[in-house]
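ZP: hey, is the adenosine-5'-diphosphate complex queued? I don't see it on the tracker
AM: it wasn't, my bad. submitting now with these inputs:
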Amino acid sequence: MKIRNKIALQFSIWVALILVVFSVVIFSLSEYNRREDVYRRLRQTAENAARAWVETSNQNVGVMNTYYQYLPKEDFEDFKLLIFNEQQQTMYAKPKPEGESYSGEVFSKAVQKGYYEAFAGENEMVGLLYQPDSVKFVVLLSAYDVVGKTKVQNLRKVLIISLPIGVGITILVGIFFATLALRPLSQMNKQVSNITAQSLKQRLDEGNRQDEIAQLAMNFNLMLERIEQSFDIQRSFVSNASHELRTPLAALKSEIQVAMQKNRSQTEHQEILQTLLQDTQQLIALTNGLLQLAQSEAKEKAMTFVPLRIDELIFLAHNELEAQHPSYRVLIDYTEIPEDENALTVSGNETLLRTVFLNLMDNACKYSPDHRAEVVIGFDVHHCRIDFKDHGIGIHEEDIGKIFEPFYRARNATNHNGHGIGLSICKRVIKMHRGHINATSTLGAGSTFSVLLPHV
Ligand code: ADP
């Protein structure tokens, strides 16, 4: 069932129930008031009749008949007056009863309590004990309240007719308001169904930007914004990656073509193969980088962290760097030697962190003409801090904010080998370890890359 119909149905059921309850209450109260009013009037008349029987007519039936004519009985039908003595003998009855026309129970209750009210079939009846002196009389008065009952019956008819009309109107009003309230949702639904991977630029109408539905639309738009961004990043990543792969492959191809153009000497072949080897190595380095980038994302969920000494990792990375580039020189130093070895222990993944440190040391040496760099290991209450300093080419201030993006290379880096993916791997891995990395640099004077990692 559609939410609109559900809301309309629930609303109608509740309103119908309330209407029924109100109708029953109104009817019952009207009936109760009518009856109270009838009993009040019958009691008054019974008291007057009793007084007339004793004082005015002096128990004379003829005089009493005349008095009877003037009793207020216009609003009643079937008006009966009975006067009994204490022995329950009828002393006066108007009209003459056919058979047993009074209730014995009302008589005895009236004697007991002095006054009693009851139903007599469709009629209301009161019984009144009257004792002006030692003699006791019981007056029974019963009547059918034709005017009052007609009014109550009319009210009942009005309620019975208006109840279904009211419920019908409620259902229509319910459907109308539910449609009105849910219209923005169905519009949003239509807009959402038009959004595909190709039309991520579309946004939902944010309406008045205040109510819950508008907030939902705003949040949805924010989500679209993020999805669009990550789609863009993904797209540019793929195109950058293919571009980066194509360049060395094209170089390889043309080198091979040139080599095949004529017969060459053994030495020339050696030289060409040497160049081919270098290009292939670059290609391998690039694909390894791409693989690491992909793995760092994939590993994020499955990765297990173990306690690792930061300085040990730095030394391992340093050994690796020296093996790869014997001309590079890195000086490793501590700001202070910690008393507690936990100050230099982080919870992390050894391979990934070693890659980060190797990358940063490699960059520091690669972008310094003297191929020298310095690593300073320090700590504070919460973090280990590792600074990678060099006195190399530095980074232009317009580039420094972008160097952590995949494939971005600063304008002064073109003379150096590289593909611009090392720092984006570093940033991602450090983020996975709940750490931070930032760079400060002066163009032409050198750079410092600082890594902060929470220690155990
Ligand atoms: P790559 O070094 O392969 O180009 P990276 O992602 O490691 O890729 O670095 C991105 C860019 O940041 C580099 O191209 C370079 O412009 C700049 N960069 C990184 N480290 C340094 C550094 N120590 N000194 C100067 N520039 C640097």
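AM: back. The chain is about 55% helix and 20% strand.
ZP: great, adding it to the tracker
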